[in-house]
Amino acid sequence: MIDTVLLKVASRCNLNCTYCYVYHLGDDGWKDNPKLLSEKSIDDIEKSLFDLYSFQGKSFAIVLHGGEPFLLPKHRLEYLLKKLRHRLPEYTTVSIQTNGLLLTEELITLCYTYNVTISISLDGPQNINDEMRLDHLGRGSFYRIMDSLRLIKNHPFSNQVFTGCLAVINPLSNPKEVYNFFKKLNIPSVNFLMRDGNHDRYPFGKSSFESLEYGKWLESLWNLYFYDPNPIPIAFFDNYIKLLIGGFSSKEGTGTETSGILIIDTNGDITKNDTLKSTKNRADRFEFSWNVSKNNLIELIQSNEFKDYLELQNPTSKKCKNCRYLSICGGGMPLYRWSDKNGFDNPSVFCQDHIHIIETISNTLEKYL
User: Fold this and answer.
1) Which class is 4-368 in CATH?
2) Which of 33, 91, 160, 217 is the most exposed place for a label (fewest CB within 10 A)?
C-alpha cells in the first residue's frame, strides 16, 4: 500500500540551505531534471495516481515538494491541483512544504480553493535560522519568512490552510530560546527534524556514535513542552507518546509499521524516498527506470525491487533487533543507518539519542500518568 506520494514540482530552489540533502550531501540527480513539472507530466500523474487509488481501494497523502514548490507558476499549480482533485476521493490530503519566500495572498486563496494545506520551513529565531537557511547570495532568509508568516496568519482562510512550521534541529542552539520563539509566533504547530547524516558523515553537531548532543537537546525541549500548561503542539513528541502508550506510528522512522512512500520527479521519474540521496549518489533510484509517462505504478509496487525498498525500513543490525525500544524507534530512518562499509546494516547514527529521549519521555509518563 502506498500511503504518501511526494511530487517534486520544482527541481530548483530559491534558497541554498547548507544542510539540504537534495543539493549539498553528494547527490547530483537534480541536475538532470527539468526545472518545473510540465502539464504533460501532470496529465500522466493524474492518470497514474487514479489507477493506483483504484487498485488499492484507498487513497494516499500527496505532498508538493521541491526544491521550492511555489517556483511552479500559479497557472500551472492550479492546473496540477485541479487534476489532483478531479478523480481522487475528496478525503485525499494534499499539502505543500515551502520556504515561504514566494507566498502571496493569491496562492493562499488558491490552496484554500482546492483544500490544500501549507507548512512553512523555519528553524527558529534569526540567529539560528540564518546560520543555515541562506539564499544564493549568502543572505539570511529570516525576515522574508517572517513576512510570509504574517501574511498567511492574517489571511481570511488561515485556519483552513496553514498547519504550522517545520524546523531542522541545531543541537548547538538553546532549546528554550527555540521553544519560546515558536510559541510566541502563535502558530498551529511546529515539528522538528534531525539533521541528515550517517556513520561516515556525522550529522552537524554530533561528535560520535555514543554522544548525546541531539538527545540532550530534545530532552530539554521535552521538559519545556511537557511542563507547559498550554504547549504548542510538537508532532515529534506526540508520536513517541502515542507509541509508548500502545498506539501506532504515523511517521516513517518510528514504530514498526511500513510506510509506502513514492517520489515523482519533475521529469516523471518514480523514485524511492528522496532522503536516501544523503547516503550515496543516486541511492534513491530504482534499477529499472520507472516513469509515469511509460509505466504503470501498479507494476512498480508489485515488483521485487519495490518490496526490497520497503524492506529497507526494517533494520537488520543485531543491536536493533535485540533492542527493547525497537517497537518505538523502529531503528530510525534508513538514511541514518548508512555506512560505506556495511550499507544499511547498522543501527541509526542517532541510536543513543533515540534511546535517551525515549527513556526521558517514558520516565515522565510513568511518573505522571
Assistant:
1) alpha beta
2) 91
